[in-house]
Design goal:
By secondary structure, this protein is of the alpha/beta class. The protein contains 5 helices and 5 strands. A 5-stranded parallel β-sheet has the order 3-2-1-4-5, with helices on both faces. Helix 3 packs across helix 5. The chain is globular, with a radius of gyration of 16 Å. Belongs to the universal stress protein A family.
């Protein structure tokens, strides 16, 4: 059974490095990739029903843009590599959602890029990589 690798992807330089690393690993192991993008959102809001409906419409538009602008080019870049590639696009807390995607896909590993936030901002707001390292059900590789 081929190994599945979930790659957190946001089109940043570090995400591109993570995708390249994951692709080389998948190719060497005969594995599959799940290129995942998570749109972060806050579940806390005090909106009217009309505002909630507008928010839902905006989310659908953001999902379409993310599919077109981020995931589709990433998958096209892997065309011809011989690697089986699928995508996952969801809203939520980034680290928690990547863990959910890994569980749903039956992945054996999650690979993400390091964003390079300052130590202060990481202490204040946490980091995706740090949260994944603590909560992931599978090994996590952080690519610089």
């Amino acid at each position: 059974m081929p190994q599945k690798i979930v790659v957190g992807y946001d089109d940043s330089a570090s995400a591109k490095s993570a995708l390249e690393f994951a692709a080389s690993l998948a190719k060497a192991q005969g594995g599959e990739l799940v290129v995942a993008h998570v749109l972060e959102w806050s579940p806390y809001s005090f909106l009217t029903p009309e505002e909630l409906e507008e928010r839902h419409k905006r989310r659908q538009e953001e999902l379409k843009r993310a599919e077109t602008a981020l995931l589709k080019p990433a998958v096209e870049g892997l065309r011809g590599s011989g690697i089986t590639v699928s995508t996952a696009l969801k809203y939520g807390h980034i680290a928690e959602t990547l863990c959910t995607i890994a569980k749903e896909a039956g992945a054996s590993q999650i690979i993400v890029g390091r964003t390079g936030h300052s130590a202060l901002s990481s202490r204040l707001f946490g980091s995706v990589a740090g949260s994944l390292a603590q909560a992931s059900p599978v090994p996590v590789t952080i690519v610089p």
